Task: structure prediction
Amino acid sequence: MISSRRLAREWALRILYQIDIGKVPHDEALAQAMNMLRMEFSQRSSRAQKDSSFEPLTLDYLTGSLSDVIPTVRPVFAKALAIGASRLVQEAPEWQEVRFLSALKRRVARLNFEPPFLSKHILNSTIIPRTMSEEDPLSVHYFALNEDEQKRYRHFVVSAGEELPLALTEEFKQLAADVARAVAQNNPVPFQHGYILEQRTAFHQKEEARWKRIGEIVEKQIVDWLRTASFLRQLVVGTLENVKAIDKTIASQSAGWKLDRLVSVDHNILRLGCFELFYLPDRVIGVSINEAVELAKKYSTAESGGFVNGVLGALLGKSEPSVSDVKEILEAEEEAIDLPDELIGLEESE
Result:
């Protein structure tokens, strides 16, 4: 388990390392990493739920539809998008039932299905709030958005409502065909109507439970992904835009060593640390130094943690985080996210 901000720092280090060592163009390195990060969040649930492709396909579509909001997304906007997406996928049992009834009618001839549908259509007002209600989390977040954010939110949920069922068509068809085949094979003709209704009800209840769980996954993963991706982009873009000034700042503490003698990992950890300390208005000093030290311990040599701590501390006129800073560290880092705390592309130090 790892916090979203630590995960963002590790990915930022990876990007800067690729640019530095692999000579990968800035935009290309950032774009590739952002897409890999998105896929990591999309595929997380498939590792835990190996019996269904609905989760990763749903998350892949939804996150792909939201990539454009990353540069400017605010926490309240991320939460509104996540809740809206979670509610939207609760329509999936209805999408699935349409496919199931179609498959069943091909196998069970001359049978009128009563009731025609078991699914209850979700009202648009539950996905796009019309009035403010303190009792509705989506309403609270939606009406805290500015006009442009509300417009982007509405475009997202309307487009997703049209396109997500199409993205899942093959999975819906396959599941419907498999279940309809099993129902038809065991169909007791004298009691056909009651049996079919019983099987429809059981299937519908199973799908409602499935999509309730997927909705919970969707809400958490979208919030975690947007939070991580937004901070990652801020770190990388900000560090690269100010890299000359940052290197000059680091060099001011270069008594006895030169920047070009630094290993790339240590150099880029210092760059990230300096960017957080001097360019982020909401940074907590103890957190920024501590996180840089942890990166050095994990991805560089045994001595690098102390070296990074010494340089960053000297830049601020302090040698190590105070007791109060350590408390801030514990309070400032968010809830852990359910992703492996490992980074592709950099070897951990032994």
